[in-house]
Hints:
mainly beta; globular; disordered N terminus
Amino acid sequence: xxxxxxxxxxxxxxxxxxxxxxxxxxxxxxxxxxxxxxxxxxxxxxxxxxxxxxxxxxxxxxxxxxxxxxxxxxxxxxxxxxxxxxxxxxxxxxxxxxxxxxxxxxxxxxxxxxxxxxxxxxxxxxxxxxxxxxxxxxxxxxxxxxxxxxxxxxxxxxxxxxxxxxxxxxxxxxxxxxxxxxxxxxxxxxxxxxxxxxxxxxxxxxxxxxxxxxxxxxxxxxxxxxxxxxxxxxxxxxxxxxxxxxxxxxxxxxxxxxxxxxxxxxxxxxxxxxxxxxxxxxxxxxxxxxxxxxxxxxxxxxxxxxxxxxxxxxxxxxxxxxxxxxxxxxxxxxxxxxxxxxxxxxxxxxxxxxxxxxxxxxxxxxxxxxxxxxxxxxxxxxxxxxxxxxxxxxxxxxxxxxxxxxxxxxxxxxxxxxxxxxxxxxxxxxxxxxxxxxxxxxxxxxxxxxx
Length: 451
């Protein structure tokens, strides 16, 4: 199979190989005019030392860890991670934002009655409400008492599924309840959803989910960085597309098997496709053995991948990310990141984008994490790697371009030392990109001439 495009990103010299062929009906590259490169041009240094953006773009800081929540429930929690934007009446927008807090977090999600699962767990979600001009008019706790809320995904009925990236049991780390679940959050009224674990969706180190809006199937990624690595799951609800609370009715959990491919890291040719099958998970509750250790019966081993992260529905299928793979940690091959596409109608899995080269993990462009669809039909990808951190765009032809970067003067006097980007999402009208800096926890709104 031929590689359709190899583009070299000048800022950092990182190569991305592949094409997002399923994202658009046309092969004309989007995101740039004929005769010009992809994207919006070079990133300009921010005089305020926060966020570098292309010319014509600007940002606003919507929320920052440690400042008071507008609800008066306490300070804004730390470690801002996965996020989604939802439409609200009167042209308003609601944001639901995860907080990936462990037991050592300095700023916990405040425990609120009716919204707290385990009072000894410090993670959860907060919800922001913006007026039609983008100003913050509300900010409150939406879920508390959960642990290591990493990413998640939106539902077709406009709720947020928040994922715990842990397998800790009751009695571990001071917890009073088992963790490793998905929780549904209603951005309009969090008390309607409460703090109820969706146990049938499995207990494992969840990263992200994507819901098929036509069939109601929920796809889930597992972020495991040590052997045995994580799995890619699908959950078949008893009440598909049933609205708020319907996932509590249970369903069947299955794991993906690509016959002959035990480890996705060994696939290094964009465009490579494989037939897949789905195998029932023996014990979704992982009561005795973590799911990825379980015996899936005859037919060979299940398919694993190191660091399965972002997951997003688009163009009739699921895009999901393997953030990296390292042979020194037990993977079958090294890579800087992969973007996969699963086509449920054809039951086939395809490698769309390969991040590289794998020889130098210090360059920008390593370790893709959260993803979402961009207004031009391509992808937005948050980086969680070494050095300066970026939000990258990927066109439908696989061309990669920078969208945002933590400011160049990191470490300078008075400048924050940013962590990864996370939670990239767009407003319902596509005119504003929202994204989090994980640490110090900050939520940005980025506006400009989006294509």
